[in-house]
Amino acid sequence: MNKEALRESVRHVIDYDDQRASAPREHTLTAIAGAGLLFCALIARGRTRAVCRAALGGALLLRAAGGRDGLRQWSHERAGLQTSSPSPAPQAVPPADLAM
User: What DSSP character marks residue 85?
Assistant: First the structure.
């Protein structure tokens, strides 16, 4: 698989993820799983296992924090800024419009 095909596949997955509705408590469960892996990394016997668990746990925490239903929505709910409808999905920016 060449780089361009792989890049296009990743773009399709990201676009799909941006357009779909989130599963109930998706970000909360992802954050719990990430925190659990970080804790397991602290008590792991081997260094390789600890590093792998910490890396995966950190990635899961970043995934839980990101997106329109992550920390952004949670902070708006706490501040009383949440409207009756969820924020719309972000629109994909064509690569030609990105500044290099």
Answer: S
